[in-house]
Automatic annotation (TrEMBL):
GO terms for molecular function: transferase activity. Belongs to the class I-like SAM-binding methyltransferase superfamily. Keywords: S-adenosyl-L-methionine, Transferase. PANTHER family: METHYLTRANSFERASE AUSD (PTHR35897). Pathway: Secondary metabolite biosynthesis. It comes from the Eukaryota. This is Methyltransferase domain-containing protein. InterPro entries: Meroterpenoid_MTases, SAM-dependent_MTases_sf. The keyword Transferase applies. It comes from Byssochlamys spectabilis (strain No. 5 / NBRC 109023).
């Protein structure tokens, strides 16, 4: 998913689906500009005067599946992956090579939701056969095909967009599709995913990701997540109807985690990680709910940040 916010104690998903929720924004406004409009018009072939209606319809159907904040506030329209420091490198790795005997590089987006970042990669020249996405909800993957009107573009759509739990990929007896995926990917994205879990669970995911990547120098892990200069476990729900603790990293603890993953998997990693402050619109929404890091933890006197990272196998 593209954004998560603290919610405190959550009631049922049925209650949260109410369109009076502060996370349900009724007007898309200027969110539907630039790269996403270009994608919908020129990749998906949706007429300009139909794009807005198409977006509202998709958002409402997805909201009824699960009222994630990122759906309600249209955060999925922000193709922020294309602003990664390593985006140019990602495209370079995934585009077809002149040497046809060389294996095709593959991209995996973990917790891809509608797969919007995947479509941006294709629009920027990556072959549709090179991209894969996974999510725990089949409904979101299917809505992605409808949103972008592109199921026929993928050689194996049901295999390339598959339902799976990343924790099923750990250990010697891997479940289902994960077993055949090991060592197959050149680039893996984890966007707003790791911060949903404890430090130990995040470390487990990183070890799995290390095994999913090809065993070659230059393989990449890219992504973003909530973080804090004061790294800590957060004892509150980050998603609707979620509970338990999550760990918010600083750049230092994020590097430490990848060093531990390297020790456990016999791999080495160069970790580039940097802070980017949440934009003012998202901060305003959090402050209105009195649930952001500044308001709920005023004694810490610091803002919530994003960590943007590029992890390279060496």
């Amino acid at each position: 998913m593209d954004l998560t916010f603290p919610l405190g104690n959550a009631s049922s998903n049925e209650d949260k689906r109410c369109k009076d929720s502060p996370y349900y924004i009724k007007i898309v406004g200027d969110k539907l500009t630039g790269p996403m409009r270009d994608l919908l018009e020129n990749y998906s072939g949706i007429p300009s005067d139909e794009v807005e209606r198409h977006v509202y319809e998709l958002r409402d159907r997805a909201w009824n599946v699960h009222p994630y904040p990122c759906i309600g506030i249209f955060a999925f329209l922000d193709l922020s992956t294309s602003r990664y420091p390593a985006y140019g490198k990602v495209i370079e790795l995934l585009k077809p090579k002149a040497d046809v005997s060389e294996d095709q590089a593959r991209f995996l987006d973990i917790a891809c939701c509608f797969g919007q970042d995947i479509r941006k990669l294709i629009h920027d020249g990556v072959p549709a056969s090179a991209v894969y996405g996974t999510d725990i909800k089949r409904e979101f993957l299917d809505l992605g095909f409808e949103f972008f009107k592109d199921k026929a573009k993928f050689p194996e759509p049901e295999r390339q967009f598959f339902v799976a739990d990343i924790f099923d990929a750990a250990g010697p007896e891997r479940a289902g599709i994960w077993n055949e995926m090991m060592g197959k990917f050149t680039v893996i994205q984890m966007a707003n995913f790791l911060h949903l879990f404890t430090y130990e669970r995040q470390l487990q995911i990183c070890c799995t990701v290390a095994r999913l990547l090809v065993a070659k120098p230059g393989a990449l892990v890219v992504g973003r997540q909530l973080g804090s200069a004061d790294p800590r476990e957060v004892e509150r729900g980050l998603l609707v109807s979620s509970s338990g603790s999550r760990y918010w990293h600083s750049p230092e603890t994020f590097r430490q985690m990848w060093a531990e993953a390297g020790e456990k998997t016999g791999t080495k990693w160069d970790v580039d990680v940097r802070f980017i402050e949440l934009d003012e619109e998202k901060l305003k929404l959090l402050k209105e709910l009195k649930q952001n890091a500044t308001a709920a933890g005023a004694e810490r006197k610091q803002r919530l940040n994003y960590l943007v990272f590029t992890v390279t196998r060496v």
